[in-house]
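step=encode ok
step=design start
structure_in=
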């Protein structure tokens, strides 16, 4: 199962994952198309921290919440810091109280809440536990993968809601692909430390002290180690660096660019 572009005349285009969690939740990934931002943020930039005009970002977020038929104040984002810190939205009041918290994972059992992760090359992880009706999203670039944010999320879902990983569905968003994601010695060492047995499969040697890193495979291994069944993990084949017509790419634009949102709603 891979993400599919929904592109209808007069509607905001976005990617969605058909049948994710047996269709009980909506897993969405916005593209760079259909918004009002200009220049390197053109056009559906959803990140306020990028240097883009804040009014444009607000307008873009409204386009997304309208398209998903959700209240503007129910789109929840974090202040992402490449950590393994997870935020749980346990009560309606938490939507206001915990919006913008420092962290890289969001968990909730609440309905009609668009929990979201902002990214441009980094991978977002979607999790759904149908037994306890709990959803989660996590931000996992190479630092998040090295910190095993996916495992932290599953652990917190278990602590707070009694989730069992073997019951959970997972999906990995479009991200920088192994075709393009060139890394140096620092990433090589971090990956080697986190995956002492499998790091050779995750890093393809390019020469000159460079490797191509497979972020999807890394996150998939972390999910499986935590107990998620391989057949319950969907992996997107979209590469955000190859497809800059469709996606913002941090690397592809040398850092000055917008952000997409990975969104999960139940
Ligand atoms: Zn690529």
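sequence_out=
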């Amino acid at each position: 199962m891979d993400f599919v572009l929904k592109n209808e005349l007069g509607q905001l285009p976005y990617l969605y994952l058909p049948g994710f969690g047996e269709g009980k939740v909506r897993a969405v990934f916005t593209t760079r198309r259909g918004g009002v931002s200009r220049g390197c943020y053109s056009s559906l930039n959803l990140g306020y921290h990028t240097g883009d005009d804040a009014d444009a970002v607000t307008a873009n977020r409204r386009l997304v919440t309208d398209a998903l038929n959700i209240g503007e104040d129910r789109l929840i984002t974090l202040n992402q810091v490449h950590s393994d810190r997870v935020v749980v939205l346990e009560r309606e009041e938490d939507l206001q109280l915990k919006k913008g918290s420092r962290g890289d994972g969001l968990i909730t059992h609440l309905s009609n809440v668009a929990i979201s992760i902002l990214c441009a090359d980094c991978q977002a992880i979607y999790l759904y536990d149908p037994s306890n009706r709990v959803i989660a999203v996590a931000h996992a670039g190479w630092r998040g993968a090295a910190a095993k944010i996916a495992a932290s999320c599953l652990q917190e879902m278990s602590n707070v809601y009694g989730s069992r990983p073997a019951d959970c569905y997972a999906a990995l968003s479009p991200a920088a692909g192994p075709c393009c994601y060139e890394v140096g010695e620092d990433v090589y060492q971090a990956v080697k430390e986190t995956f002492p047995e499998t790091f050779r499969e995750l890093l393809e040697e390019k020469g000159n002290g460079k490797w191509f890193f497979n972020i999807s495979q890394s996150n998939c291994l972390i999910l499986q180690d935590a107990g998620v069944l391989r057949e319950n993990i969907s992996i997107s084949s979209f590469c955000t660096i190859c497809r800059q017509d469709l996606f913002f790419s941090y690397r592809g634009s040398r850092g000055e660019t917008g952000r997409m949102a990975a969104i999960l709603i139940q």
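step=design ok
step=annotate ok -> The two ends are 19 Å apart (CA to CA).
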